[in-house]
Amino acid sequence: MKPFRPEPDSLTYLKEAGRQEGKAQEIIPQETRFRYIGKKIRRVDGSLIVTGKAPYTQDFYFRDLLYGKILRSPHAAAEVVNIDFSAALSHPGVMAAIKLTEGRIRYIGEPVAAVAAVDEDTAEQALKLIKVEYKVLPFVVSEDKARQEGAPQVLDSPNVQKLFEYTRGNIKEGEAQADIIIERTYRTAIEVHHPAETHASIAYWKDGRLTVWDSTQAIFSVRDQLARALNLPASRIRVIKKYMGGGFGSKLGLNDFTLAAALLAREAGRPVKIVMTRRENAYCLGNRPSTLITIRGGAKKDGTLTFLHMKNFTGGGVGRGDRCSEPLMDIYKCPNVLVEEYSVFTNTCASRPTRAPGHVQGTFALESFMEELAAELKMDPLELRRKNYSEKNLGDTGIPYSSKGLLECYRLGAEAIGWSRRNQIPGERKGKIKRGLGMATQIWWGAGVPGTLADLKIYPDGSVEAICGTQDLGTGTRTYIATIIADTLGLEPQDILIKIGDTDYPWAPSSGGSQTTPSVGPAFRDAALKAAERLKAIAAKKLDCSPEKVQIELRRFVNMDNPEKAISFNEVARELRRVTVFHGERGDLPAGFAYNSFGAHFAEVEVDTETGKIKVIKVVAAHEVGRVINRLTAESMVIGGVTQGISASLFEQRLMDDNEGRCVTTNLLDYKIVAFSDIPEIIPIFVDSPDPRINNLGTKGLGEPPRIPVAAAIANAVYNALGIHPRQIPMTPDVILTLLKKEAKP
Ligand code: MOS
Known about the structure:
Blueprint: H1 13-16, H2 46-50, E1 66-72, E2 78-84, H3 86-89, E3 94-99, E4 103-105, E5 111-117, H4 120-129, E6 131-136, H5 143-146, E7 160-168, H6 171-177, E8 180-188, E9 200-206, E10 209-214, H7 219-230, E11 237-240, H8 256-268, E12 272-275, H9 278-283, E13 290-299, E14 305-315, H10 326-330, E15 337-344, H11 359-377, H12 381-387, H13 393-396, H14 406-417, E16 433-444, E17 453-458, E18 464-468, H15 477-489, E19 496-500, H16 516-543, E20 550-553, E21 556-559, E22 566-568, H17 569-574, E23 580-585, E24 597-608, E25 614-624, H18 631-650, E26 656-657, E27 662-663, E28 681-686, H19 710-722, E29 728-729, H20 733-744
Bound molecules: dioxothiomolybdenum(VI) ion.
The site of dioxothiomolybdenum(VI) ion (MOS) has 12 residues, from loops.
């Protein structure tokens, strides 16, 4: 079998999705008051989740279920010469074995073969009985070493390759106009997703159809990729996902072990379950690629940016890494920009999209640079950002933003943190423990995907079903679906049965790119409006008025002119006489506008100059994402994003052993993440203003934005405290102590 390289969904669909044509669907006016939308609504499935009753993929069992395991390469670079399954297959309880590769192996952990057995222990033993003959080859796992002349070549092409370039204006002209020019280099380490629920798949074949239960952010994309890999019509494959414990991008698309489960199930004629271990999660299921970003830029004395030049070397293992220049190209008004991005290939597993891919690393560099530039200019760093504020995308040279609430984020965030308390001169305060304040700006997409479908089914007994093939990553999808329908039809969220996570349901995009709410929400709003129209027409006849005079109240329809006259929701539904389906669709994005979300984070930190330890005291996270649908889950999303950002800023780094080519951070002790005691007060603020044309709810996505500016806000606060910028994440105590020592030298 040819090696199967999983292709995680790229985030280019974010922009392709912006099919800029057609008319906007009618938007709910800003002043409209709702019973549920915009309020704090508890999850409709909250008690199911916290009592352990919500079923996750690995909780499902089927008759005759087998357990699969993956044999992974122990070599970082090798040629597979031969695979011998005879001993494994004659082991009692082993039901099937398959090759997953032939030829070249490029990292430790690359899948080589898979087995299915009657239980996990037997499968584990069988792996040890597979005899693989390798021809071991030279390798390189460090990005710095991979860039050097004579380094072992990772692919069949050079280790350093152009990833992206962009030019506008002329940076030479920008240099000539600048009063101050600085150049700074920033580094970000590799971060691993580590969702609470590890990856898992179950596959079985029945009546010529393959069914896959998968912990995935992208059921339709898993289906379509399986169809291609197995050469089957997509209609012969069904992918189901019920509950999920996060993905953060690591579960966007088909995994090699999912395909292995399908192949093993076909071979054995029985269902096969494969669950990834925490260890596998740590070293061979993707990560956020590293970056080495240099920004050179200049400004006039008053802070006006004249040019920005960015160079990035991104380390995505055997993958291409992340483009990180979007924030720099877009956020600030700047006429002259040059971007050069390069992939650096190493013998480590391919990176995958990770919550706001590229924007996290690019924003750390750009926003740290802005802080350092402000200091050179002796300007308030927030003023520098206001000075270069843009109304149009691509740094004010493109099309206008449909809506942009960033100035409000600046104002509200600065007020909430007490921005005037910051050190006027970085590092000016004396003492062992030093405090500082810093801030950073964020931009993301998240307009939603036109063409998303949703069905609303109303039964003659008044029961209501919402059906859509979207998937909930753990963010609360079911709740906002229920909320939107409830508000449109005069029901309560608990009244609505939600059916999601199945490719046999109407199409919805992958849950990535902060797209789910602005795709699925508007589609259900559309379906519910169509249902409301029909129900109002029925009610009008009973109430002796025109449909326009029918008002929807809680579980009843009322004649506006004669409020005595009312009819219950159930009585109206009965008149439908049969189960009726209302089809909703998320409308187009009108052309001529850029659709982005914005935010600004403000952080307060304390740095212990003796231990080098950073303590984050407070984070104010102000976001503009159009209309907020559920304030409770929105606040949770922000608190989660900030927490994950603090974790990556202070602790997280995947470390490799250069000599062995092996990952050494394969558990959650060695790969340190944030603990409760590290989490400060986090204050979410929303500029709650519906976008005038983005979709019928006026809402933008919020999944990724709160993850983006955290590291820069903290690093800038550290700079404000110490007068030294850390310029790398994670900002571990040794990094800070080394900087303080360098500074102390005469
Ligand atoms: Mo996200 S990286 O689009 O799950």
